[in-house]
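Chapter summary example.
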Amino acid sequence: MRRKKSEWFLLLMGAACFAAVIFLWLMSKISWSGTGHEVVLMGDSVVGNQFHNGDAVDVVLSEKTGLEVCNLAFGGSSVVPYNEELWESLGSEAFGFEALVNAIVSRDFSAQDSAIERNSTLEYFPERLTNLEQTDFSQVDILVICFGTNDYANQVSPDIFEEVLGDSVGKLQAAFPALTIYISSPVYNYLTRDGEQIFCDSGEWGEYLLEEYVLCQERVAKQYGVGFIDNYHDSVINAETVYEYTIYGDGMHLEEEGRDVLTDAISAAILKDLE
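The structure predicted for these 275 residues follows.
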């Protein structure tokens, strides 16, 4: 039985609409164009916080390298997710390195968006998350990963730390093969408990020393063929000088002089490879 012209017209219109929907969906996936940066920092509050005297780490690093540096670090974050009562409302697990890498690779930041909706006490988090969501890592030249202190403070197993860090670096390499990656270790520091300063090499904080996490980072860097910046062993910040370079009574966050030391090491590694 022959179809009427009107029926053929409706069929063709339906097919055309379906094809248009598929085309627009494909184009949204293919043509997404986020922001690219020359250098991106990811890490915890040592590089992420903006409230200290002097310029922030990203500003100083940009001045020393002559490159555009985007700070995508979140205070309180770590490589291995943790969820203590203090952080439950913030959802710190959403800002751990593993969770952020998964979000970057999948382009699904719903967990981070939800965490920020539940807590707005950290004023720079929403803006920084927006910057992260808009960053196209296929257009990023260099990523500097600056974690470790909070993993030590939380006393997560170094074996788990090393595994999660390695897996996350591997995911980034698979998704963005042109990305140059550096792992920048924590500096020597001390933490404070009940008013007592506990140095990271004393063994009094817990079962694991900060150095163990640094050695894990070094092994991961070697395994995955990425740069390693040893701020723990190769820095002027040590047990004798830590008071000069960190905030008094804090021992972990860097004063202006400490940020100068840290950015010297990072910029030296980057500029050496760019020669």
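To summarize the output: The beta strands are 39-43, 69-71, 142-146, 180-184, 190-193, 196-199, 227-229.
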